[in-house]
Protein backbone atom coordinates (compact mmCIF):
# COMPACT_ATOMS: atom_id res chain seq x y z
CA UNK A 1 0.00 0.00 0.00
CA UNK A 2 1.34 3.42 -0.93
CA UNK A 3 2.06 5.67 2.07
CA UNK A 4 -0.33 8.26 0.67
CA UNK A 5 -3.09 6.15 2.22
CA UNK A 6 -1.58 6.66 5.68
CA UNK A 7 -1.43 10.42 5.15
CA UNK A 8 -4.99 10.48 3.88
CA UNK A 9 -6.17 8.61 6.97
CA UNK A 10 -4.20 10.95 9.24
CA UNK A 11 -5.78 14.02 7.66
CA UNK A 12 -9.38 12.83 7.60
CA UNK A 13 -9.34 11.35 11.11
CA UNK A 14 -7.57 14.16 12.99
CA UNK A 15 -9.60 16.75 14.88
CA UNK A 16 -8.44 19.92 16.57
CA UNK A 17 -8.79 18.15 19.91
CA UNK A 18 -6.02 15.76 18.86
CA UNK A 19 -3.55 18.61 18.38
CA UNK A 20 -1.37 19.75 21.29
CA UNK A 21 -1.48 23.36 22.43
CA UNK A 22 2.13 23.97 21.35
CA UNK A 23 1.23 23.13 17.75
CA UNK A 24 -1.79 25.41 17.84
CA UNK A 25 0.37 28.21 19.24
CA UNK A 26 2.96 27.69 16.49
CA UNK A 27 0.28 27.65 13.80
CA UNK A 28 -1.05 31.03 14.95
CA UNK A 29 2.45 32.48 14.94
CA UNK A 30 3.27 31.37 11.43
CA UNK A 31 -0.15 32.14 9.96
CA UNK A 32 0.28 35.74 11.14
CA UNK A 33 3.88 35.80 9.95
CA UNK A 34 2.78 34.60 6.50
CA UNK A 35 0.10 37.28 6.25
CA UNK A 36 2.73 39.90 7.06
CA UNK A 37 5.29 38.76 4.51
CA UNK A 38 2.49 38.40 1.95
CA UNK A 39 1.50 42.03 2.49
CA UNK A 40 5.10 43.19 2.25
CA UNK A 41 5.64 40.97 -0.80
CA UNK A 42 2.80 42.81 -2.51
CA UNK A 43 5.37 45.46 -3.34
CA UNK A 44 7.85 42.96 -4.78
CA UNK A 45 9.07 42.52 -8.34
CA UNK A 46 6.46 41.66 -10.98
CA UNK A 47 3.49 41.61 -8.61
CA UNK A 48 1.43 44.12 -10.57
CA UNK A 49 2.19 42.31 -13.81
CA UNK A 50 1.24 38.99 -12.23
CA UNK A 51 -2.13 40.37 -11.13
CA UNK A 52 -2.80 41.85 -14.57
CA UNK A 53 -1.90 38.63 -16.37
CA UNK A 54 -3.94 36.32 -14.12
CA UNK A 55 -6.97 38.57 -14.58
CA UNK A 56 -6.93 37.57 -18.26
CA UNK A 57 -7.50 33.89 -17.49
CA UNK A 58 -11.19 33.97 -16.62
CA UNK A 59 -13.98 35.90 -15.03
CA UNK A 60 -14.77 35.90 -11.34
CA UNK A 61 -14.33 37.71 -8.06
CA UNK A 62 -13.96 34.67 -5.81
CA UNK A 63 -11.02 35.92 -3.73
CA UNK A 64 -8.85 38.99 -3.34
CA UNK A 65 -5.14 39.70 -3.67
CA UNK A 66 -3.75 40.69 -0.25
CA UNK A 67 -2.76 44.32 0.05
CA UNK A 68 -4.10 45.14 -3.42
CA UNK A 69 -7.80 44.32 -3.30
CA UNK A 70 -7.99 42.95 -6.84
CA UNK A 71 -10.73 40.29 -7.03
CA UNK A 72 -9.84 37.21 -9.06
CA UNK A 73 -10.99 33.64 -9.61
CA UNK A 74 -9.79 31.48 -6.72
CA UNK A 75 -6.94 29.73 -8.61
CA UNK A 76 -5.57 33.08 -9.78
CA UNK A 77 -5.81 34.64 -6.30
CA UNK A 78 -4.06 31.59 -4.86
CA UNK A 79 -1.22 32.03 -7.35
CA UNK A 80 -0.81 35.75 -6.63
CA UNK A 81 -0.99 35.50 -2.85
CA UNK A 82 1.42 32.56 -2.64
CA UNK A 83 3.82 34.42 -4.89
CA UNK A 84 3.61 37.46 -2.63
CA UNK A 85 4.33 35.36 0.46
CA UNK A 86 7.49 33.91 -1.06
CA UNK A 87 8.89 36.56 -3.39
CA UNK A 88 10.86 38.36 -0.65
CA UNK A 89 12.36 35.12 0.74
CA UNK A 90 10.90 36.17 4.11
CA UNK A 91 8.50 33.24 4.71
CA UNK A 92 8.83 30.61 7.43
CA UNK A 93 10.52 27.30 6.67
CA UNK A 94 10.95 23.79 8.05
CA UNK A 95 14.71 23.44 7.93
CA UNK A 96 14.89 19.65 8.09
CA UNK A 97 12.35 19.31 5.30
CA UNK A 98 13.58 22.33 3.31
CA UNK A 99 9.94 23.28 2.78
CA UNK A 100 8.19 26.66 3.06
CA UNK A 101 5.00 24.79 3.79
CA UNK A 102 2.78 27.68 4.97
CA UNK A 103 3.30 29.55 1.71
CA UNK A 104 1.55 27.40 -0.88
CA UNK A 105 -0.87 26.23 1.81
CA UNK A 106 -2.23 29.64 2.82
CA UNK A 107 -2.23 30.96 -0.74
CA UNK A 108 -4.51 28.11 -1.78
CA UNK A 109 -6.59 27.56 1.35
CA UNK A 110 -7.48 31.21 1.92
CA UNK A 111 -8.57 31.63 -1.71
CA UNK A 112 -10.85 28.60 -1.48
CA UNK A 113 -12.24 29.66 1.90
CA UNK A 114 -13.09 33.09 0.55
CA UNK A 115 -14.69 31.67 -2.60
CA UNK A 116 -16.71 29.06 -0.72
CA UNK A 117 -18.26 31.48 1.74
CA UNK A 118 -15.67 31.35 4.50
CA UNK A 119 -14.74 28.92 7.22
CA UNK A 120 -14.09 29.22 10.93
CA UNK A 121 -10.71 30.11 12.37
CA UNK A 122 -10.74 26.80 14.19
CA UNK A 123 -11.07 24.97 10.87
CA UNK A 124 -8.27 27.04 9.32
CA UNK A 125 -5.96 26.24 12.23
CA UNK A 126 -6.48 22.51 11.87
CA UNK A 127 -6.17 22.63 8.09
CA UNK A 128 -2.88 24.55 8.31
CA UNK A 129 -1.43 22.25 10.96
CA UNK A 130 -2.26 19.15 8.93
CA UNK A 131 -0.95 20.69 5.71
CA UNK A 132 2.42 21.40 7.31
CA UNK A 133 2.38 17.93 8.85
CA UNK A 134 1.89 16.07 5.57
CA UNK A 135 4.40 18.06 3.52
CA UNK A 136 7.13 18.00 6.16
CA UNK A 137 6.75 14.35 7.18
CA UNK A 138 7.18 13.42 3.53
CA UNK A 139 10.12 15.76 2.95
CA UNK A 140 12.14 14.85 6.06
CA UNK A 141 12.23 11.24 4.83
CA UNK A 142 14.10 12.27 1.66
CA UNK A 143 17.78 11.27 1.63
CA UNK A 144 18.84 12.91 -1.63
CA UNK A 145 19.49 16.53 -2.55
CA UNK A 146 17.13 18.96 -4.25
CA UNK A 147 16.49 18.63 -7.98
CA UNK A 148 13.00 20.07 -8.02
CA UNK A 149 12.05 23.10 -5.92
CA UNK A 150 10.73 21.34 -2.83
CA UNK A 151 8.99 24.40 -1.31
CA UNK A 152 6.76 24.33 -4.38
CA UNK A 153 6.36 20.60 -4.93
CA UNK A 154 5.87 19.51 -1.33
CA UNK A 155 4.01 22.77 -0.79
CA UNK A 156 1.39 21.56 -3.27
CA UNK A 157 0.74 18.56 -1.01
CA UNK A 158 0.40 20.90 1.96
CA UNK A 159 -2.14 23.02 0.13
CA UNK A 160 -4.20 20.05 -1.03
CA UNK A 161 -4.24 18.79 2.55
CA UNK A 162 -5.51 22.10 3.89
CA UNK A 163 -8.10 22.65 1.17
CA UNK A 164 -9.30 19.06 1.39
CA UNK A 165 -9.69 19.34 5.15
CA UNK A 166 -11.59 22.62 4.86
CA UNK A 167 -13.92 21.07 2.29
CA UNK A 168 -14.47 17.92 4.37
CA UNK A 169 -13.16 15.47 1.78
CA UNK A 170 -13.52 11.78 2.51
CA UNK A 171 -10.53 9.47 2.06
CA UNK A 172 -11.18 8.67 -1.58
CA UNK A 173 -11.74 12.26 -2.64
CA UNK A 174 -8.66 13.50 -0.79
CA UNK A 175 -6.47 10.81 -2.34
CA UNK A 176 -7.64 11.80 -5.81
CA UNK A 177 -6.98 15.46 -5.00
CA UNK A 178 -3.38 14.61 -4.10
CA UNK A 179 -3.13 12.57 -7.29
CA UNK A 180 -4.46 15.32 -9.57
CA UNK A 181 -2.17 17.86 -7.89
CA UNK A 182 0.75 15.50 -8.45
CA UNK A 183 -0.04 15.44 -12.15
CA UNK A 184 0.32 19.25 -12.21
CA UNK A 185 3.29 19.51 -9.83
CA UNK A 186 6.09 21.77 -11.02
CA UNK A 187 9.19 23.73 -10.11
CA UNK A 188 12.87 23.01 -10.68
CA UNK A 189 16.01 24.21 -8.97
CA UNK A 190 17.23 25.95 -12.11
CA UNK A 191 15.29 29.07 -11.15
CA UNK A 192 17.07 29.05 -7.78
CA UNK A 193 20.46 28.48 -9.37
CA UNK A 194 20.02 31.52 -11.60
CA UNK A 195 18.28 33.70 -9.01
CA UNK A 196 15.27 34.04 -11.28
CA UNK A 197 11.91 35.54 -10.29
CA UNK A 198 10.44 32.29 -11.57
CA UNK A 199 11.37 30.81 -8.19
CA UNK A 200 8.50 32.56 -6.42
CA UNK A 201 6.22 32.01 -9.39
CA UNK A 202 6.73 28.26 -9.02
CA UNK A 203 5.30 28.52 -5.51
CA UNK A 204 2.31 30.35 -6.95
CA UNK A 205 1.82 27.78 -9.70
CA UNK A 206 1.54 25.00 -7.13
CA UNK A 207 -0.97 26.97 -5.05
CA UNK A 208 -3.11 27.49 -8.15
CA UNK A 209 -2.77 23.83 -9.12
CA UNK A 210 -3.79 22.68 -5.63
CA UNK A 211 -7.03 24.66 -5.92
CA UNK A 212 -7.69 23.18 -9.37
CA UNK A 213 -6.89 19.64 -8.16
CA UNK A 214 -9.30 19.89 -5.23
CA UNK A 215 -12.06 21.28 -7.44
CA UNK A 216 -11.56 18.43 -9.90
CA UNK A 217 -11.54 15.79 -7.17
CA UNK A 218 -14.68 17.28 -5.63
CA UNK A 219 -16.34 16.88 -9.05
CA UNK A 220 -15.46 13.18 -9.05
CA UNK A 221 -12.39 13.15 -11.30
CA UNK A 222 -9.77 10.54 -10.45
CA UNK A 223 -6.05 9.91 -10.73
CA UNK A 224 -3.48 7.15 -10.09
CA UNK A 225 -3.17 5.63 -6.64
CA UNK A 226 0.53 5.23 -5.86
CA UNK A 227 1.65 8.83 -6.13
CA UNK A 228 4.22 8.75 -3.31
CA UNK A 229 6.00 5.41 -3.52
CA UNK A 230 5.10 4.16 -6.99
CA UNK A 231 7.90 3.66 -9.55
CA UNK A 232 7.10 7.12 -10.92
CA UNK A 233 5.75 8.54 -7.66
CA UNK A 234 6.86 11.74 -5.96
CA UNK A 235 9.54 10.21 -3.74
CA UNK A 236 11.35 8.44 -6.56
CA UNK A 237 10.73 10.74 -9.50
CA UNK A 238 10.87 14.20 -7.93
CA UNK A 239 13.26 13.41 -5.08
CA UNK A 240 15.34 10.32 -5.84
CA UNK A 241 15.53 8.28 -2.64
CA UNK A 242 14.01 8.22 0.82
CA UNK A 243 13.97 6.33 4.11
CA UNK A 244 10.66 4.44 4.42
CA UNK A 245 11.24 3.98 8.14
CA UNK A 246 11.30 7.76 8.65
CA UNK A 247 8.34 8.50 6.38
CA UNK A 248 5.58 7.41 8.76
CA UNK A 249 7.36 6.81 12.07
CA UNK A 250 6.37 10.13 13.68
CA UNK A 251 3.02 10.70 12.00
CA UNK A 252 0.48 11.70 14.63
CA UNK A 253 3.23 11.97 17.27
CA UNK A 254 5.44 14.82 16.08
CA UNK A 255 3.62 17.94 14.92
CA UNK A 256 5.85 19.50 12.29
CA UNK A 257 4.32 22.97 12.62
CA UNK A 258 6.11 23.20 15.98
CA UNK A 259 9.42 22.75 14.14
CA UNK A 260 9.05 25.70 11.77
CA UNK A 261 11.66 28.45 11.75
CA UNK A 262 11.11 32.17 11.40
CA UNK A 263 13.13 34.08 8.88
CA UNK A 264 14.37 37.17 10.71
CA UNK A 265 15.74 38.54 7.42
CA UNK A 266 14.32 38.77 3.87
CA UNK A 267 16.92 36.50 2.32
CA UNK A 268 17.19 32.79 1.65
CA UNK A 269 17.18 30.79 4.87
CA UNK A 270 20.47 29.24 3.76
CA UNK A 271 22.07 32.68 4.18
CA UNK A 272 20.88 33.02 7.76
CA UNK A 273 23.49 30.80 9.42
CA UNK A 274 26.33 32.82 7.89
CA UNK A 275 24.68 36.15 8.71
CA UNK A 276 23.83 34.99 12.24
CA UNK A 277 27.40 33.84 12.92
CA UNK A 278 28.96 37.06 11.64
CA UNK A 279 26.56 39.27 13.60
CA UNK A 280 27.12 37.28 16.80
CA UNK A 281 30.88 37.76 16.42
CA UNK A 282 30.47 41.45 15.65
CA UNK A 283 28.28 42.02 18.70
CA UNK A 284 30.55 39.98 20.96
CA UNK A 285 33.84 41.60 19.89
CA UNK A 286 32.62 45.05 18.90
CA UNK A 287 34.42 45.36 15.57
CA UNK A 288 33.22 47.53 12.70
CA UNK A 289 32.62 46.15 9.21
CA UNK A 290 35.42 48.28 7.76
CA UNK A 291 37.92 46.59 10.10
CA UNK A 292 37.37 43.17 8.50
CA UNK A 293 40.04 41.77 6.21
CA UNK A 294 38.42 38.46 5.25
CA UNK A 295 35.53 36.17 6.19
CA UNK A 296 35.56 32.42 5.66
CA UNK A 297 32.40 30.34 5.97
CA UNK A 298 32.56 26.53 5.94
CA UNK A 299 29.06 25.31 5.15
CA UNK A 300 27.15 22.13 4.27
CA UNK A 301 26.84 21.34 0.54
CA UNK A 302 23.20 22.49 0.40
CA UNK A 303 24.06 25.98 1.63
CA UNK A 304 26.83 26.34 -0.93
CA UNK A 305 24.45 25.12 -3.62
CA UNK A 306 21.66 27.50 -2.61
CA UNK A 307 23.48 30.72 -1.69
CA UNK A 308 27.19 30.30 -2.42
CA UNK A 309 26.82 32.21 -5.69
CA UNK A 310 29.41 34.91 -6.45
CA UNK A 311 28.82 38.58 -5.77
CA UNK A 312 28.22 40.57 -8.96
CA UNK A 313 28.29 44.28 -9.63
CA UNK A 314 24.89 44.22 -11.30
CA UNK A 315 22.51 41.90 -9.43
CA UNK A 316 18.76 41.55 -9.69
CA UNK A 317 16.82 41.57 -6.44
CA UNK A 318 16.14 37.84 -6.73
CA UNK A 319 19.82 37.04 -7.26
CA UNK A 320 20.94 39.28 -4.38
CA UNK A 321 18.51 37.74 -1.88
CA UNK A 322 20.21 34.40 -2.48
CA UNK A 323 23.80 35.69 -2.49
CA UNK A 324 25.27 35.04 0.95
CA UNK A 325 28.30 37.22 0.17
CA UNK A 326 26.09 40.25 -0.45
CA UNK A 327 23.57 39.85 2.37
CA UNK A 328 26.31 39.10 4.93
CA UNK A 329 28.30 42.19 3.98
CA UNK A 330 25.12 44.29 4.03
CA UNK A 331 24.18 42.93 7.46
CA UNK A 332 27.60 43.68 8.95
CA UNK A 333 27.35 47.32 7.89
CA UNK A 334 23.76 47.73 9.05
CA UNK A 335 23.34 45.27 11.95
CA UNK A 336 20.86 43.17 10.00
CA UNK A 337 18.89 43.02 6.77
CA UNK A 338 15.71 44.96 6.09
CA UNK A 339 13.36 45.02 3.14
CA UNK A 340 15.36 48.02 1.86
CA UNK A 341 18.48 45.85 1.41
CA UNK A 342 17.62 45.43 -2.26
CA UNK A 343 17.07 49.08 -3.13
CA UNK A 344 19.39 50.40 -5.81
CA UNK A 345 21.41 52.43 -3.31
CA UNK A 346 22.04 49.34 -1.16
CA UNK A 347 22.86 47.04 -4.06
CA UNK A 348 25.43 49.47 -5.46
CA UNK A 349 27.01 50.55 -2.16
CA UNK A 350 30.80 50.41 -2.72
CA UNK A 351 31.71 49.51 0.88
CA UNK A 352 29.27 46.58 0.89
CA UNK A 353 30.60 45.42 -2.46
CA UNK A 354 34.20 45.57 -1.28
CA UNK A 355 33.48 43.46 1.81
CA UNK A 356 31.30 41.01 -0.13
CA UNK A 357 34.22 40.21 -2.42
CA UNK A 358 36.30 39.25 0.62
CA UNK A 359 33.80 36.70 1.89
CA UNK A 360 34.71 33.15 0.91
CA UNK A 361 32.26 30.25 1.19
CA UNK A 362 33.57 26.68 1.11
CA UNK A 363 31.91 23.28 1.36
CA UNK A 364 32.53 21.26 4.52
CA UNK A 365 32.41 17.47 4.87
CA UNK A 366 28.76 17.24 5.98
CA UNK A 367 27.32 14.08 4.35
CA UNK A 368 23.67 15.20 4.63
CA UNK A 369 22.52 16.69 1.30
CA UNK A 370 19.64 18.50 3.02
CA UNK A 371 21.50 19.99 6.01
CA UNK A 372 21.58 23.73 6.72
CA UNK A 373 23.84 23.44 9.80
CA UNK A 374 26.41 23.51 11.22
CA UNK A 375 28.05 26.62 9.79
CA UNK A 376 31.55 27.67 10.88
CA UNK A 377 32.56 31.31 10.49
CA UNK A 378 36.07 32.74 10.78
CA UNK A 379 36.49 36.52 10.64
CA UNK A 380 40.04 37.79 10.10
CA UNK A 381 40.64 41.42 11.05
CA UNK A 382 43.01 43.90 9.45
CA UNK A 383 44.66 44.13 12.89
CA UNK A 384 45.60 40.45 12.69
CA UNK A 385 42.99 39.29 15.21
CA UNK A 386 40.80 36.31 14.30
CA UNK A 387 37.35 35.43 15.62
CA UNK A 388 35.54 32.14 15.00
CA UNK A 389 32.17 30.59 15.79
CA UNK A 390 30.20 27.50 14.83
CA UNK A 391 26.44 27.92 14.49
CA UNK A 392 24.23 24.89 15.09
CA UNK A 393 21.01 26.71 16.05
CA UNK A 394 20.38 29.54 13.62
CA UNK A 395 18.44 32.56 14.90
CA UNK A 396 14.75 32.01 14.20
CA UNK A 397 14.86 28.22 14.62
CA UNK A 398 12.87 26.49 17.39
CA UNK A 399 16.12 26.02 19.34
CA UNK A 400 16.98 29.73 19.01
CA UNK A 401 13.63 31.39 18.38
CA UNK A 402 12.60 34.95 17.80
CA UNK A 403 10.80 36.34 20.82
CA UNK A 404 7.11 37.01 20.56
CA UNK A 405 7.89 40.72 20.62
CA UNK A 406 10.37 40.31 17.73
CA UNK A 407 7.80 38.27 15.81
CA UNK A 408 5.23 41.05 16.20
CA UNK A 409 7.79 43.69 15.25
CA UNK A 410 8.53 41.79 12.06
CA UNK A 411 4.81 41.57 11.31
CA UNK A 412 4.25 45.29 11.90
CA UNK A 413 7.24 46.22 9.74
CA UNK A 414 5.97 44.02 6.94
CA UNK A 415 2.52 45.57 7.12
CA UNK A 416 4.14 49.02 6.95
CA UNK A 417 5.99 47.90 3.81
CA UNK A 418 2.77 46.94 2.00
CA UNK A 419 2.45 48.83 -1.31
CA UNK A 420 -0.89 50.33 -0.30
CA UNK A 421 -1.35 51.34 3.36
CA UNK A 422 -3.80 49.43 5.47
CA UNK A 423 -6.42 51.38 7.33
CA UNK A 424 -5.41 52.59 10.81
CA UNK A 425 -6.09 49.91 13.37
CA UNK A 426 -6.11 47.03 10.89
CA UNK A 427 -2.65 45.81 11.87
CA UNK A 428 -3.58 45.49 15.54
CA UNK A 429 -6.91 43.97 14.57
CA UNK A 430 -5.14 41.29 12.51
CA UNK A 431 -2.85 40.46 15.41
CA UNK A 432 -5.74 40.09 17.84
CA UNK A 433 -7.91 38.16 15.39
CA UNK A 434 -5.19 35.58 14.73
CA UNK A 435 -4.36 35.38 18.42
CA UNK A 436 -7.98 34.33 19.04
CA UNK A 437 -8.33 32.37 15.81
CA UNK A 438 -10.31 29.56 17.47
CA UNK A 439 -13.09 32.08 18.13
CA UNK A 440 -13.25 33.55 14.63
CA UNK A 441 -16.47 32.68 12.82
CA UNK A 442 -15.28 33.56 9.31
CA UNK A 443 -11.69 33.82 8.07
CA UNK A 444 -12.70 36.16 5.24
CA UNK A 445 -12.64 38.83 7.94
CA UNK A 446 -8.86 38.39 7.95
CA UNK A 447 -8.75 39.18 4.24
CA UNK A 448 -10.99 42.22 4.82
CA UNK A 449 -8.33 43.58 7.16
CA UNK A 450 -5.61 43.07 4.53
CA UNK A 451 -7.38 45.28 2.01
CA UNK A 452 -5.99 48.79 1.46
CA UNK A 453 -7.79 51.70 3.04
CA UNK A 454 -10.64 49.74 4.64
CA UNK A 455 -11.58 49.63 8.31
How is this structure best described in words?
By secondary structure, this protein is an alpha+beta fold. The chain has 2 domains: 4-264 and 416-449, Orthogonal Bundle (2-methylcitrate dehydratase PrpD), CATH 1.10.4100; 269-391, 2-methylcitrate dehydratase PrpD (60s Ribosomal Protein L30, Chain: A, 2-Layer Sandwich), CATH 3.30.1330.120. The protein is 51% helix and 7% strand. It contains 21 helices and 6 strands. α1 (4-13) packs across α8 (171-184). The longest helix is centred in the N-terminal third of the chain and has 21 residues, at 21-41. The model has no long low-confidence stretch (mean pLDDT 97).
